[in-house]
Backbone:
């Protein structure tokens, strides 16, 4: 006849956070428990055991702190990466356009892109718009070094040019045509090479703007 076996759950918690609390309680009470229960553990053995438990506790605390520091460091790096890389691209664009005669100095910066042929007649930018903070944000995909020409209209009207976008998003901060009256705005963009629009106009994206 088969006998039932009784299984016990481990008394040491699995997660580091719960285990840390358990260990702190354990190390506070192990000396009293070992001495009062009449074990063979002498004071020296208990002290050595307390020290190894404390070393383990410190290792857990150190590891948890490094996790926190690592997450904070990664988050800080990603925040700086997003803002700094954007600014580098903006500055590089300004330098290459306004300082085009000083080729040698510009070359030292390492901001020259490898050139390759592009069929500009086939280019069509993607567009996405959203309203936030009482502004309209027009997001677009960059293509090589081209800027985008941004157009806007109200339904049924002709598009009007409202500006150029060097980096995404382009922000439309124009006020409502009629104060306090929400309006639907339709946006479209085209790539521009600083002389003329090139390629095809994007699809039309619309939002309701309330000011």
Residues:
């Amino acid at each position: 006849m088969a006998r039932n076996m009784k299984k016990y759950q481990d008394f040491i918690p699995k997660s580091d956070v719960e285990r840390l609390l358990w260990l702190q309680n354990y190390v506070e009470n192990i000396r009293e428990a070992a001495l009062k229960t009449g074990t063979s553990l002498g004071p020296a053995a208990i002290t050595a055991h307390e020290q190894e438990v404390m070393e383990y506790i410190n290792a857990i605390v150190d590891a948890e702190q490094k996790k926190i520091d690592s997450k904070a460091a990664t988050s800080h790096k990603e925040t700086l990466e997003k803002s700094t890389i954007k600014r580098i691209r903006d500055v590089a664009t300004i330098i290459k356009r306004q300082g085009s005669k000083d080729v040698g100095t510009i070359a030292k910066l390492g901001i020259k892109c490898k050139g390759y042929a592009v069929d500009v007649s086939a280019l069509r930018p993607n567009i996405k718009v959203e309203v936030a903070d009482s502004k309209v944000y027009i997001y677009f995909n960059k293509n090589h070094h081209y800027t985008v020409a941004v157009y806007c209209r109200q339904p049924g009207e002709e598009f009007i040019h409202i500006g150029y976008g060097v980096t995404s998003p382009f922000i439309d901060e124009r006020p409502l045509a009629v104060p306090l009256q929400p309006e639907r705005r339709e946006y479209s963009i085209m790539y521009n090479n600083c002389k003329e629009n090139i390629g095809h106009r994007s699809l039309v994206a619309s939002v309701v703007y309330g000011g």
